[in-house]
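Working notes for the structural subgroup meeting. M.R. asked for a predicted model of this chain before we commit to crystallization trials. I am recording the input and output together here so anyone reviewing the notebook later can reproduce the run.

Input as submitted:
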Amino acid sequence: MLTTRQGIRPLHAGDLSAFLELTGQDPVVNVFAEYRARTTNLEPRWLGGEIWGRWDGGDLVAACHVGANLVPIQATQEDAYAFGERARNRVRTVSTIVGRQPAVRSLWSSISDSWGTPRDERWEQPHLEQQLQSLVEPDPFVRRTVRADMEVLYPACVAMYTEEVGISPETGGGRDLYRARVLQLISRGWSFARIEDGEVVFKAEVACATPGAAQIQGVWVPEHRRGEGLAARGMAAVCDIVRREIAPRISLYVNEWNAPARRAYERAGFLETARFSTIMF
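Returned structure, recorded in token form:
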């Protein structure tokens, strides 16, 4: 294992081309990192952090997003360990470590003794891409949400987040920030829902997108409507819109234990293409 910081430095705007070449090696798995680079031009003030690059003979061979999320990018286990060695002596500012499982395991092994006990560790998360034709008809009632839907949509977003993450997004005075995030997704045309009689019965969002790929998040059906096929048909509808109007390839990742969600995604044409892990603080 590498135990030095040799060859690692923060990237800047002049490195954008090299970074996009790196993320382009796997544009679907790296959609978050590429989206962040394209929208910030790798400027720290817009990133809210840094992206570290590891160089070998003048070539960028791996990177690590260091902001609210710590995300290894095209990193071998050796690269990830080196990034962890650089991060271990910093005060932890990230709330989540997420990425391909081998890299996350290696990164965590180098910083776990200095970053404290995580709130949750989710080591087995299938990364899925829609690669097959959906087995179900798209739900014709799923549509993009609009600002007028906000008061109905927002409680559903809070319920989904709380169920998935284990804490409310409003904890610690986060309500205004989370409402702003939901409104941002609506304004971008990245928020989708089926609404019946003033109730959201299915919802999903695009978390990030590039010219080549989009990642779905926040898929949710209220508990009393589960088992009706709303998720599978809703996802088929969302994917049709996203593929037609946002990006040609669509991915998401899901907890391995969430069998109902995995069945819904399978029916919507998704296959596992990688294995992710997430550590939450």
